[in-house]
Specification:
Helix content is 31%, strand content 26%. Strands 2-1-3-4-11-10-9-6-7 form a nine-stranded mixed sheet, sandwiched between helices. It has a two-stranded antiparallel sheet with strand order 5-8. By secondary structure, it is of the alpha/beta class. The protein is globular. Strand 1, helix 1 and strand 2 form a beta-alpha-beta unit. Helix 1 packs antiparallel against helix 5 and helix 2 crosses helix 3. It is built from seven helices and eleven strands.
């Protein structure tokens, strides 16, 4: 099988390694078939899309809506690399699934309005599929409404005409969309389970996602409901696109 690729941007080793382990677990792939590239450490390699099956993008610390003058040199590099990659991905309608930071990369590439209007604290939220989402083959194993883990400072406020809205939540109108037939992005985290998000809560306690005295409240918020459905789309993505 041609491998899949996970593009990651987490600088902290513990959550970065756990993110990779979660993608391995819920895709059903082994390390030979899921190549990880840590973009915060090294430039993105030039991918020959004919030699891989698909691309995943994990979450990370970068925000597309950050002012240019506040972005680090690494963030500017990573954004330029994604812009070039997505030129080819979208033109070829190549299998792509971006989670959290991935929705910012694809949204920015397509000209979406991304700002701080619809942030969501680290928590579990109900996600509802649109009519297009309910009929999409990537989501066929999911119920019309399901719980998912979220935690983001920015979100898409206005989708471009090139995008099809697939899912929303009460406080974030764009939880998932696609471009063409095979290029997907989610605001929620399909790869996470409660242990994984607990690791991230501790790792990013000082990153502005919650106040210093809200650690226990945040931990309780992600335990209030069982989250099991979103990860199914990772296995479905692999089953659809492995070649």
């Amino acid at each position: 099988m041609k491998p899949f690729v996970l593009l990651a941007t987490r600088a902290e080793d513990v959550p970065a390694d756990e993110e990779y382990a979660l993608f391995l677990r819920y895709t059903g792939l082994d390390e030979r078939d899921l190549m990880r590239v840590r973009l915060e450490a090294d430039p993105m390699p030039r991918f020959d899309l004919d030699r891989i099956s698909g691309i995943f993008v994990g979450g990370g610390p970068f925000n597309a809506s950050d002012a240019d003058e506040t972005k680090s040199a690494v963030q500017h590099r990573v954004e330029a690399e994604f812009e070039a990659l997505l030129d080819e991905v979208v033109a070829r309608d190549f299998p792509f699934l971006g989670a959290c930071y991935g929705i910012g990369t694809l949204g920015a590439h397509q000209g979406a309005l991304i700002d701080r209007t619809y942030p969501e604290p680290i928590s579990v939220v109900p996600v509802t599929l649109t009519e297009d989402g309910a009929s999409d083959p990537l989501l066929e194993d999911l119920p019309r409404e399901f719980d998912a883990f979220v935690g983001h400072k920015e979100a898409i406020t206005v989708l471009p005409s090139s995008a099809t809205l697939l899912a929303s939540s009460p406080n974030c109108p764009v939880q998932m969309f696609k471009v063409r037939r095979n290029v997907y992005a989610t605001q929620f985290h399909p790869e996470l389970d409660v242990d994984g998000i607990t690791t991230r809560i501790h790792a990013y306690a000082g990153y502005g996602y919650f106040a210093a005295d809200e650690l226990e409240l945040t931990l309780a918020a992600v335990r209030r409901a069982s989250v099991s459905h979103p990860s199914r789309m990772l296995r479905t993505f692999v089953e659809r696109y492995a070649r």
